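2024-03-11 09:14:02 INFO worker-7 job=invfold-0412 stage=load source=structure_tokens
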């Protein structure tokens, strides 16, 4: 690890990243959607929700597609958190229309909807046939993803997260065939996000960057890319993750203040995009494993839950990822405070200083998330104390995420993280 936190290319280090064919970023870039889409198809399905369908920006996008010679069919009944039923309804509605390109315009729910529908229109069946990893047998229709929240990074990831009424917790479809062909990331589309939505989305994005940057590092086995969708940290995802932390760290408070800081909105959206690029191959870990059961119990937004958990998971993981967390402190411009100061000539001053920096990073993440209104503990999030054991047990069942955590976990350790997160006792976990 270099002083800037960039992973060095020591012998044996390896990298893997899977990304869309095209990523277009910048204020106003949605105005190119007509030409971008026309290069992929002439008969477009646009998946969005009722709010976006009535927004002036959407009418402009629709007109832009028409002007480029693209026929447009709009499905505007996507629901937040993506209940499986709306996906089936959409497929039934458009199956006979000869759709050849699919747009997802909205938050993560609309983009995930577009990704799954594009697969079902080619391969048939229902979402449940593809739960898990590598179940989609081949390419889907090309997807153009246009996010209106700065958070999930779904516009570049190989996963869609669905709420299936037959399951207690949300479930994922993960496949490289779900990666959108093109992402058009226009920060202007996030200007209408209210404060709390901005904060939840930003907390999600920060957790993607941190969990991807500090995930397990697997040995460079040439079979890794075909055996796992999410492979752990690597040289290629580390750069995005760390740059994303820096961008989000310096923009999150201004971008979530409800004000009109356009440059903060742009930095936050770029940071969220980088989070998607990092998590899409590295994957996430314990904060996500624990959010799923907590979200099922509390019905709180995903970003609020991962944000509330993140500092505690970082504190638990610190001994296994001290160098990385010290790099996070630099990315977040943490001052060299007492935590990080070492007496001149002290024995082992290098590692003591690094450990101090790492702890400062955990505290700074907690401070930033608290500043934008993310609950500081799980009691504030609305979790009942008597459900902690159940959450620990269900969190452990998310094997893909538990295996990706850098420090080994069992239900006792999950319980320890949850206890501290419920009590708001970050110092207790930091030791
Ligand atoms: N596929 C992935 O890689 C990935 C990663 C993380 C989360 N997710 C999933 O994404 C979903 C969450 O997505 P999200 O946080 O973007 O929210 P969302 O798409 O669920 O939308 C939440 C609400 O925000 C509104 N909204 C969206 N954009 C807005 C805007 N610009 N102005 C005003 N209101 C706006 C929507 O209409 C909706 O009511 C969850 O289902 C989560 O599981 C997916």
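2024-03-11 09:14:09 INFO worker-7 stage=emit residues=431
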């Amino acid at each position: 690890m270099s002083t800037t936190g960039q992973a060095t290319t020591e012998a044996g280090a390896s990298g893997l990243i899977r990304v869309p064919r095209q990523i277009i970023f910048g204020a106003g870039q949605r105005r190119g959607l007509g030409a971008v889409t026309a290069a992929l198809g002439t008969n477009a399905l646009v998946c969005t929700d009722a709010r976006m369908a009535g927004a002036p920006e959407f009418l402009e996008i629709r007109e832009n597609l028409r002007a480029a010679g693209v026929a447009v069919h709009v499905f505007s009944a996507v629901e937040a958190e993506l209940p499986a039923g709306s996906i089936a309804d959409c497929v039934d509605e458009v199956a006979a229309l000869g759709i050849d390109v699919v747009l997802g315009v909205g938050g993560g729910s609309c983009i995930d909807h577009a990704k799954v529908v594009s697969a079902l229109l080619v391969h048939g069946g229902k979402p449940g046939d593809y739960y898990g990893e590598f179940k989609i047998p081949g390419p889907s229709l090309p997807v153009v993803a246009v996010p209106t929240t700065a958070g999930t990074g779904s516009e570049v990831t190989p996963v869609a997260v669905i709420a299936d009424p037959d399951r207690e917790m949300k479930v994922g479809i993960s496949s490289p065939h779900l990666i959108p062909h093109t992402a058009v990331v226009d920060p202007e589309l996030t200007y209408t996000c209210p404060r709390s939505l901005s904060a939840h989305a930003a907390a999600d994005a920060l957790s993607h960057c941190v969990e991807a940057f500090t995930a397990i590092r697997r040995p460079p086995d040439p079979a890794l890319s075909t055996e796992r969708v999410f492979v752990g940290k690597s040289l290629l995802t580390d750069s995005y993750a760390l740059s994303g932390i820096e961008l989000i760290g310096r923009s999150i408070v201004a971008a979530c203040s409800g004000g009109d800081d356009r440059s903060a909105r742009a930095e936050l959206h770029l940071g969220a995009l980088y989070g998607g690029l990092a998590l899409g191959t590295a994957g996430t870990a314990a904060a996500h494993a624990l959010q799923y059961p907590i979200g099922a119990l509390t019905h709180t937004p995903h970003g609020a839950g991962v944000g509330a958990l993140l500092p505690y998971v970082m504190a638990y993981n610190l001994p296994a990822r001290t160098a990385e967390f010290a790099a996070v402190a630099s990315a977040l411009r943490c001052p060299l405070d007492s935590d990080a100061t070492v007496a001149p000539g002290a024995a082992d001053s290098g590692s003591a200083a690094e450990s101090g920096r790492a702890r400062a990073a955990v505290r700074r993440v907690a401070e930033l998330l608290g500043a934008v209104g993310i609950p500081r503990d799980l009691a504030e999030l609305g979790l009942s104390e008597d459900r902690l054991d159940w959450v620990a047990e269900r969190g452990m069942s998310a094997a893909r995420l538990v295996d990706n955590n850098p420090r080994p976990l069992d239900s006792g350790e999950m319980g320890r993280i949850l206890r501290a997160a419920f009590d708001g006792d970050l110092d207790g976990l930091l030791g």
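2024-03-11 09:14:09 INFO worker-7 stage=report msg="The pocket of nicotinamide-adenine-dinucleotide is lined by residues 49, 51, 80-82, 106-110, 112, 148-149, 151-154, 157, 159-161, 170, 189-190, 192-193, 197, 201, 204, 302-303 (CB under 6 Å)."
2024-03-11 09:14:10 INFO worker-7 job finished
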